[in-house]
Amino acid sequence: MQEPTFLILTALAAGPQHGYAIITDAGRTSGGVTRLQTGTLYMALDRLSSAGLVEPDREDVVDGRLRRYYRLTDDGAAELAAETERRRASAAVAAQRLRARLAGGIA
Amino acid sequence: VSAADTKPDPERARLERRYRRLLRCYPSGQREEMLGVLLAAARPGQRAPGARQTVNLVACGLAIRARRAVAAGPWQDALAVVSLVVPVLMLVIAILDVAVEVRQQVTIDAYPPGIPFWRLGLVPAGWLAVVLLLGLAGRRRTAAVIASALLALALVNPLSEVVHLTGTEYVAVPLLLYTASVTPVVLTSLAACSLAFSAGPRRGLAITGRWRACLMIAGLAVVFGNPAVTYLVSPSASWDGFGSLILDALTIAVAAVVTRVPGTVGWRIAVLVAGPMLLLDVASIYFGGSTASVAVPLLGILLFAVLMWPVAIASWRGRVRLSR
Q: Using an 8 Å Cβ cutoff, are B152 and B306 in contact?
C-alpha cells in the first residue's frame, strides 16, 4: 500500500471526513512529512471508491462551497488493519535489530 | 488556513478561474468539491496554482479519466480478448515472415549474402512467444513491459527512415512514415496496452472460448499478414488501395461475428484491432494517395504507440487497479 493510500484510510478510520480535513489529517499523522496534493487525494479516493474501500457519506455546503464527506467501509477497515499489521511487524524487526546493534556496540 | 473567502476579492476570483480551468481534466462530478479543497488550501494572497500543483492536477485528472474508461466492463473485456488475440496474431505474422524469407532464399537468390536470414524473423517470434506465455501464466504486467520493449524495436524502423532521409533531399515526412512499416507499431502498442489495462489473455480466452479465438486469429492473420500471405500463395500478386480496404472490412466482420456471444464486447474488439488500420486506409484512398492524407492518422498512431510506455509503467507499479 502506498503512503497516500495509508494516510487517507487512517484519516477516515476516525470517522467520515471531507477532502480538506483528510489532507490536514494526513499531514498531522505523518508528522508533516507527507503533504498530500489535492489531485493525488482525489485520484486515490476515486480508486478506493471503485475498490469498495471508501464510500461517499454525506454532502453539505459551507461558505457556498460543496463539501463531500467520505467514510471507511468494512472492507477498507480490514485492508487498513492488514496494512497496519504488516507495518507493525516490519517496524518490530527494525526496532529489534537496532536494539541488538546498540547492545553489540556497548559490549 | 481559512476557508473560502466571503467578500469578493479579485485575486481570489482569478485563482478560482485558474483552478476551474485545470479542473476540466476531471469528471464533472468531482470539480466543485475539489475547487473547495483547493481554495481552502490556498495561501493568503496566492494568485495562481504552482507548477508542481498544476502538473499534479492535470496528471491525476487524466489518470482518473483513463482508469474510469478502461474500468468499464465491456471495454475491459474487449481489451482482455485483444491481449490474447494480438500477441498470437503477431506470432503468426512473425512465423509467416520467416516462411517468406525461407521461400525467397529457396526460389530466388534474393537475400544478401552474409546475413543470417532466419534471425530477423525468429527473434521477434521468440520474443512474442515469451509475451504470450507470460500472459497466459497470469504475469500480464511483466508481459506488458516486455511487449513495450518490443514496441521500442518496432518504432526503430519508422524513426530510422525519418532520420536517414531527413536533410538529404525534400521528403514529405508523412509519406516517409507511410512507407516505413507501421503495422508492427500498431499491433505492438495494442499488445502492450491491452496487457497493461485488462485482466489478461486468460480472461480473454474465457470470454471468447477456444474455437472462437482460433477463428478470429485466423481471419485477422489473413488480413494483417497480408503481404506475406499473398506472397506465399502467389509471389507476383499484390494488394493495395481498395483491396486493402476490403481486407480491413473483412477484419471487422470477422471480429464482430466471432465475438457475438458476449454482446457489446464484439464491436469494441473490432474497433480496437481494426480501427487504426482502417483509418489509415480510408485516409489514403480518400485523399488519392497524396502525402498529406496519412499524416494525421499516422502521427496519431505513433503518438498512441509512444503513450503506451507510461501506461505500462503505471500498470507495473500497481497504480492502475483493475476490478475483476
A: no
